[in-house]
Design goal:
The chain is α/β, with parallel strands linked by helices. It is 43% helix and 14% strand. A six-stranded mixed β-barrel has the order 6-7-8-9-12-11. The chain has a five-stranded parallel beta sheet with strand order 15-16-17-14-18, sandwiched between helices. The protein is elongated, with a radius of gyration of 32 Å.
């Protein structure tokens, strides 16, 4: 990877002296200090408890700031660990929260981290070097010229608010003075009284890191040094080099090494080089780490005690608030299926290509529609007001436009055959019945002409019905998806409350309300976080449909998380690092990945990572993956220990006729626009074909338009019939109806096979098996391979099917070139 080719030196970490204590219960050896040196150089830097340090993190230029509380070797003695108190840099506080400061932060300001539990045990080999952290009184001015190695603390940050650092905390962790820096040699705490222990425990209750520590210390042996004591002691017996000297040494060593190993390195900015020389102890960072180093009893014990202590301090026990809402969602370990063959992978790739082609063609069509719409504007003056001028459309809010484009694409995907009629429909429908607010312009340019007249409110019942039925209108409620909503809500909420991670896989055929439901869940959760009902979390969403290449997913996620722009490779490396490093990751990240099917890559890496990251111990990541394909996880996780990922699954069933009826009715919200039997007819038709709410809404909306033109009051049977006819009377439907019995059976077989696979592609061989079965059902002689192939070719020749050109024969892949609904409609509805 390009990212890792940067210059670096090897650092060597060694304990100084013998262990100063041994914890018999936890089986850890406590050490007083750790030395760091650069390979090939004699100078060493010494890190001791009490010292402030920089710790390698996601961002090479801004390592984490922390203070060492404890140094120890794990049971095996192989791992050097440190327990730290985190400080949060300005850049780590969400920009929206920084406003709470009421002033602009100082560039070198850090905040004492007092938030909810976060990993405080780090690999000691990720320690970079010592730094200076100075406590300042709230009113004290920041120094005018600050060097890059001194940080200033005035406030603490707990993910919600800034507060002056608790004085008891400062007593417990005094401001570093040279004495502490020089040698906080651990002194046996045998003289400590039980009362003192209790006091120190009390004073540290707010500090989650210390909380863990205190809990551990309760089980510690007499020889384990008491933190509080240790930190207050200076060390007369170890006059180590002054911090600045140490730093200087290290810097020099690194510069020298840099000069040696790569003459090309630019010496112009020593500071930058220092950071780019950051050592990377990959051994402890690889995904395998979790497996190599299973949770020791100690760390799991610590977690227990931590959660015991957390719950009372978290206020009115959030779990009780939600326990009634929580429901067990089907959680399971997925079976590992057979290995996919190469061809199958290629096939999937093709589908994704085809889908992106679809996207492009939809964009083109959209533009054509737009032109059409403008040309025919005199024909349909009323609606013209909703049609934004091209300029306006181009300059309008990017995201919003893309969302509409997606909605439009979806509409076309489910009803491929009525672009002509669509030109008359408004391109922009007001979302709600209320007054139309002017659009938000993120990038306002002077050239945008404003509307000549303000947009009009929908004038009558039908017009309003049409607006409400538009697929891009946000419904006020989501009937028939209450259970799914609850389950997804509880899943994410519980992860956010517990500070853990996980992945939920939501699947279902198009138009079953997956996107609408998940987005509504996230909207409600964001609201809950805003109202402080649940801890704040970071929410990011991406959509496979919005990418031309699946690897862009990395770059998009990174940019949305950090604002950082990077190439896909670099972003992948940064995300990998972000989700595998122990770090003061205070807030859970919720990542919504819609249209996951389209992120299929030959090596399946993108999808695999999306499923894998949430399982990382430090990630605090919740992934909500939405896809049409039921068995994608099985397909991806082949050979990759699927069992480890214990996915939570949720499948959205197609809507029944009653449900579709209810959805339309609720969308209309007591607006009496339809005759009852008319609505029933649409719902029955759509339920019989696909159970796709999008299609149902489209047909209803079209029927409303027809009704408007015929100047009738209510949408009746005739309008609905006409809409249904239009929707399904494309040349494709005509072509399907004119095919032979065997060809029609073959098309049926294609759909049966697609449904079985949960995919929109199959091999000829797979379809043939279905075809033969259908022949038997129909009492026909099952077709042979060559006859079947001939049928398939004919359907390919008239473009009802798309056939894989490079491969002929039974393994040839095929796709439908029309929507499944059109096929089913053509074959069923006579
Ligand atoms: P795809 O797999 O194609 O992405 P999807 O399952 O994500 O489909 P949505 O986009 O959520 O489907 O729904 C399609 C349309 O139907 C949207 O306009 C949505 O608002 C509407 N819809 C779906 N379910 C409901 C419901 N229960 N109540 C109201 N509207 C619904
Ligand atoms: Mg969707």
């Amino acid at each position: 990877m390009k990212y890792f080719t940067r210059l670096r030196v090897k650092r060597i970490y060694e304990w100084r002296g013998a262990p100063i204590g041994f914890n018999r219960k936890l089986k850890t050896s406590e050490y007083g200090s750790l030395s760091i040196r650069v390979e090939g150089f004699p100078q060493t830097t010494v890190i001791r408890a009490g010292q402030h340090i920089l710790i390698e993190g996601d961002d090479d230029d801004n390592p984490y700031v922390a203070r060492v509380l404890r140094l120890f070797a794990d049971e095996s003695g192989a791992q050097k660990k440190a327990v730290v108190q985190w400080f949060v840099r300005v850049s780590e506080v969400p920009p929206s929260k920084l406003k709470l400061l009421g002033r602009s932060p100082h560039p070198q300001e850090v905040f004492f981290y007092e938030g909810r539990s976060c990993e405080d045990e780090v690999n000691a080999e990720s320690v970079l070097r010592p730094v200076q952290v100075r406590h300042l009184e709230a009113a004290a001015p920041f120094p005018v010229s600050a060097d890059g190695d001194t940080f200033y603390v005035k406030l603490s940050w707990d993910s919600r608010t800034f507060r002056p650092v608790d004085p008891s905390l400062r007593r417990a962790l005094p401001a570093p003075d040279p004495a502490v820096m020089r040698g906080a040699t651990a002194t046996p705490a045998s003289s400590r009284k039980p009362g003192a222990e209790a006091e120190s425990l009390h004073s540290l209750t707010k500090l989650s890191a210390s909380k863990c520590l205190s809990a551990k210390r309760r089980g510690a042996t007499q020889r384990t040094p008491g933190i509080r004591k240790r930190l207050q002691l200076s060390s007369p017996d170890e006059p180590a080099a002054l911090r600045d000297d140490v730093l200087q040494q290290l810097l020099e060593a690194e510069l020298l090494a840099a000069g040696r190993s790569a003459a090309a390195a630019s010496p112009s900015d020593p500071h930058r080089i220092t950071h780019s020389l950051t050592p990377r102890r990959r051994t402890s960072r690889t995904p395998g780490r979790r497996d190599d180093v299973p949770l020791t009893p100690r760390s799991s014990r610590r977690r227990e005690s931590q959660s015991e202590m957390d719950s009372p301090s978290a206020g009115d026990d959030p779990s009780s608030r939600t326990s009634s809402r929580r429901k067990e969602v089907q959680t399971g370990t997925e079976p590992v299926l057979e290995v996919l063959d190469e061809e199958e992978e290629n096939g999937a790739l093709r589908v994704s290509r085809r889908k992106s082609a679809l996207k492009v063609s939809s964009r083109i069509r959209k533009q054509l529609n737009l032109l059409d719409g403008q040309l025919s504007s005199d024909e349909d003056e009323e609606e013209e007001e909703f049609v934004p001028s091209r300029k306006e459309l181009q300059s309008s809010d990017e995201e919003e436009e893309e969302d509409e484009e997606l909605a439009a694409k979806k509409s076309r995907r489910s009803s491929s055959s009525h672009t002509k009629q669509k030109t008359r429909t408004p391109k922009k429908t007001p979302r709600k019945a209320g007054p139309i607010t002017p659009r938000r312009h993120r990038h306002v340019t002077p050239s945008i002409p404003n509307r000549a007249q303000p947009a009009r409110r929908p004038g009558n019942v039908l017009e309003e019905a049409r607006a409400r039925l538009h697929v891009s209108a946000v419904p006020e409620s989501l009937p028939c998806r209450e259970q799914e909503f609850q389950d997804i809500y509880s899943f994410v909420e519980s992860k956010v409350l517990d500070g853990t991670g996980g992945c939920m896989y939501v699947s279902g055929v198009p138009g079953t309300g997956k996107t609408a439901t998940v987005q509504e869940v996230m909207r409600c959760l964001q609201l809950a976080a805003e109202q402080d009902e649940i801890p704040p979390f970071v929410y990011v969403q991406i959509n496979g449909m919005k990418m031309t290449d699946p690897h862009q997913a990395y770059a998009q996620i990174l940019q949305k998380l950090t604002g950082q722009k990077a190439t896909a490779d670099h972003a992948a490396a940064l995300l990998e690092k972000r989700f595998s490093n122990p770090a003061p990751r205070k807030e859970t990240t919720v990542l919504l990945v819609d249209e996951l099917d389209l992120l299929w890559t030959r090596k399946q890496n993108v999808m695999y990572n999306l499923f894998d990251w949430p399982t990382r111990r430090h990630a605090r990541l919740v992934v909500l993956a939405i896809a049409n394909t039921m068995d994608l996880p099985e397909r991806i996780l082949i050979n990759r220990v699927a069992s480890r990922l214990g996915l939570t699954r949720m499948s959205f069933q197609p809507y029944s006729f009653k449900q579709l009826q209810q959805i339309v009715t609720s969308r209309l919200n007591k607006l009496k626009a339809f005759e009852d039997d008319a609505l029933q007819l649409v719902s029955r038709k759509v339920a019989a074909l696909s159970g796709d709410a999008r299609r149902c809404l489209d047909i209803c909306r079209r029927a409303t338009e027809i009704c408007e033109r015929s100047a009738a009051g209510l949408v009746g049977m005739s309008h609905v019939m006409e809409a249904l006819d239009e929707m399904f009377s494309s040349p494709y439907v005509a072509a399907i109806r004119s095919t032979s019995t065997q060809e029609q059976l073959f098309l049926r077989a294609v759909i049966a096979e697609f449904r079985r696979l949960g995919l929109e592609e199959a091999t000829f061989q797979q379809v043939l098996v279905q075809h033969q079965a259908l022949c038997r059902v129909e009492g026909l002689q099952p077709v042979g391979v060559s006859e079947g192939l001939a049928v398939c070719r004919r359907l390919g020749a008239c473009r009802l099917l798309l056939l894989e050109p490079s491969r002929l024969g039974v393994l040839q892949r095929l796709w439908l070139n029309v929507s499944q609904d059109d096929v089913l409609f053509a074959l069923k509805a006579d």
